Amino acid sequence: MWNYSEKVMEHFRNPRNVGEIENPEAVGEVGNIVCGDALRLTLRIDKETDTIIDAKFQTFGCASAIASSSALTEMIKGMTVDEASKVTNKEIADFLEGLPDEKMHCSVMGMEALEKAIANYRGAPAKKEMVGEERIICKCFSVTDKKIVRAIRENNLKTVEEVTNYTKAGGGCGRCKGEIEKLLKEFWEKEATKKEVRTEERPPARKLTNLERINLVQETIEREIRPRLRADGGDIALVDIDRKKVYVKFLGACLGCPSTGVTTKALVEAKLKEFVEEDIEVEEVRE
């Protein structure tokens, strides 16, 4: 028996947004019933604002697949298409307060369905890494080298077992485990080389004073974050800064939005990490 969180069980027993939108603006399908998991995601999108106003799913799979699909549809409703395009499988798992390692591939399936739906809406091909047009590594589950490498990169995977948990590759006959191990070795060797080059090229980061940190946070909010939120009718206020912990409050259309947790990490914290300090943290203040 898997050790599921209460939130996973709640979304499994009472899944939200089950069904299919009639004449949807976007459709994303991933998986294969033969492999045991399949998901169809349909979206209703306001084309004037590019806002997802409804999302529904149909899935064939386990409790984690149903819960992940349910969580995904709740997360993206109210987001713009651009915001939804940044949702990761980690954020889906976090929304559910975690998934068993062996079931993380369900959150990946949700992310891939969303990417396909957005590509369908934009009339563009989905990411090549997701589509899997390259060499098939795992014949049991039709998993390509591109999909495996993407999972390694985005989820910091280090072992064959972790790759299986996130992609199902190697979970059948097991004959492909040697190939998976080779991909892991090649990927991390390349990353180590890149890190060495970056270390040689970049001077060591200078420690910021509190005043410098405050000024950089304020500048980044004004330049990189506030314009994006205001474009969708929202806004943000800086509440406090305690060393490397930044407290913010969402305003306007963002106030009370169920997706602010994702926005906090995917937009606000990501931008502050990029322009201020890599180890800075952001916490939303709710009143």
Topology:
Elements: H1 6-13, E1 26-32, E2 37-46, E3 51-60, H2 63-76, H3 81-84, H4 89-95, H5 104-122, H6 128-131, E4 136-138, E5 143-144, H7 145-155, H8 160-167, H9 177-201, H10 210-231, E6 234-242, E7 245-252, H11 260-275, E8 281-284
Helix pairs in contact: 1-2, 2-5, 4-5, 5-8, 7-9, 10-11
Write out key terms for the chains shown.
three-stranded antiparallel β-sheet; globular; 287 residues; 8 strands; Arc Repressor Mutant, subunit A; GMP Synthetase, Chain A, domain 3; 48% helix; single chain
Compact description:
By secondary structure, the protein is α+β, with helices and mostly antiparallel strands. Helix content is 48%, strand content 18%. The longest helix has 25 residues, at 177-201.
**What fraction, in percent, of the residue positions are helical?**
40-55%
Q: What is the CATH top level name of the largest domain?
A: Alpha Beta
Give the strand order of the largest sheet, numbering strands 1, 2, ... along the chain: 1-2-3
Mean pLDDT over the full residue set: 86
Strand-residue proportion:
15-25%
CATH architecture of the largest domain: Alpha-Beta Complex
**Tally of alpha and pi helices:** 11
Number of strands: 8
Summing up helix and strand content along with how strands pair, one would put the structural category as alpha+beta
Give the tally of structural domains.
3
Based on CA inertia axes, which overall geometry fits? Answer: globular
The Cα radius of gyration reads 20 Å
Give the CA-CA distance, first to last residue: 39 Å
